[in-house]
Design a protein that fits this description.
It is built from 5 helices and 18 strands. The radius of gyration is 22 Å and the shape is globular.
Amino acid sequence: MARNSPRFVSRLVSGVALAALFSGCIAPNEEIHPSGPPIVPAPSVAGSALPSASRAPAISDPTVAPSISVEPTVPASLERTASVEENGIRLTIELERNPMPAGEPTWATATLTNTGPDDLIWFHGGCSNFSTISGMPDGDRWRPGEDPAADRLRSWKRFLLGFGGQPPAQMTVEFTPEPFIGKGSIVCTLQLESQHLASGASMVERAQWNGLAFVALTPPPSGPLDLRAVAGPFLRASDPEREGGAPGKDLELHLHTWVVGDGRPWLHPGEAIDAAFADPAFVSMLGARSPGDGNQPLIRFDPASGRFMIGILDSQPAVDRARFEVVDGITGEALGYGERVWDFQRDGNP
């Protein structure tokens, strides 16, 4: 399926720039204004003894609560590699392991080989990765949580849950290209560039899934995953379309994969936002602002502490400041409101 350069780069930005945000997750609070005593992020949920600012039920609507059921059975034999070849181009994906454990990093290696008789021309933007790897767990959708009674909070929830856009309904798994792991903010330029790959030559790149659902949320549950790798767009040096300025074609393959969940009843993002709304200090901060007016949504899950950071990033002339509520990822306890300066190099894109 063909795609033009801006679409290609845009997808890379969404899968890479956002993926950079795991590098900082919930960093130490340098300035805190909780409803109770100061918040000190704990190394684990089990070791947390933080007093709560307020408390909300983890899942208040029984119609959307996860049911207690037997874990699905992982197939005895799963392939770790898949290949596709078309028009003298071979794309191979190799997983570090299959099934992939949720909450733990898993690597994938992509190899592109020019098996044709002439040069292969690869088009890319400024990030210059030839492949993207992602997937959707089969049937796993985000629980939306409650519908806030107040119109203002309803607007804020949609803004936060949609990361400034449309709220995602389906869980996704995203692999981050190796050069961008832990690099903070990533911006891919939109100019179209080309690179030649000689006959018989190969390119290899690695990418990592951090074990969380897109892209810094809770670990996905156990189940099958259709892993999709897309490379390109490409043209052969001998293709007649080259003279007409055609952007080339993609190469796509699928690998039947499984995720093994950790079995813990994690909140979904909508439920964590509901819990944050239980803290008057957080609601008061939102009440003094409008969604998207000089601010960006901030929603992250930190697997080390088992907590969500729910809030906004205020863009100010002198400094960017995060304003957020910390929420326990299992109990739904609102642990307190805090603020701190946001360092894009350390914390990445919100």
